[in-house]
Amino acid sequence: MASDVGKKERIIWISLLTVIIAISVLVITKYQTTLTSVNQRVTDYEAEKTTWIQSEANLTSQVSELKTQTEKYSRLISTFPTNNPNIISDLKRQGFDGSVQDIVNDLIKHNELIPYDGVLGGKMGFHSKDNVYVLSDKWVYAYFDDGHINGYLLLSYSVNNGVVSWKVIDSYLAE
């Protein structure tokens, strides 16, 4: 009987040890699977991080290029002739009693001179007096836009009895 009890006890211990080993193998396998999954996610995140760093570098480069272009255009604009008040003396000889600003104000009222239609619901117009340049007593260079696209007009004008008449010489849409 003692040998039967000892045999049963050994079988219980072996069974218990087998269950513990089986559970340990399952836990270790699950841990390895989780670890592999986490390592894959880390690798994916590192690849995504590299992509974002490259995108940031590209955008930084584009910003730098835009700043350079802005500086270039600012220098160009600063050399562009402004609305010279001396032009008024030539206009007065033609009988005009207003100011250069009156010429600008008159043009801004004439959006119909713009030979392009607005897009996406926008309406073409001369929206900024600062972008209308009276070049002489006969010529005006003006920027126009609709909020989506923009362009420039070269116009000639004449003043007769205080009324300004306009003629479009050339125009283009900016790229």
Chart the SSEs and their pairings.
Layout: H1 2-79, H2 87-93, H3 100-108, E1 132-134, E2 139-145, E3 150-160, E4 163-173
Antiparallel strand pairs: 1-2, 2-3, 3-4
Q: What is the total domain count? A: 2
Query: Radius of gyration, Cα only, in angstroms?
Result: 40 Å
Order of helices and strands: HHHEEEE
Q: Which structural class best describes the helix and strand composition?
A: alpha+beta
**Average pLDDT, to the nearest integer?**
86
Structure commentary:
The structure is a single chain. By secondary structure, the chain is an alpha+beta fold. It folds into two domains: 1-79; 84-173. It has three helices and four strands. It has a four-stranded antiparallel beta sheet, covered by helices on one side. The longest helix has 78 residues, at 2-79.
Keywords:
single chain, 175 residues, alpha+beta, 2 domains, four-stranded antiparallel β-sheet, 3 helices
Summarize the structure.
The chain has 175 residues and is α+β, with helices and mostly antiparallel strands. The protein has helices at 2-79, 87-93, 100-108; strands at residues 132-134, 139-145, 150-160, 163-173.
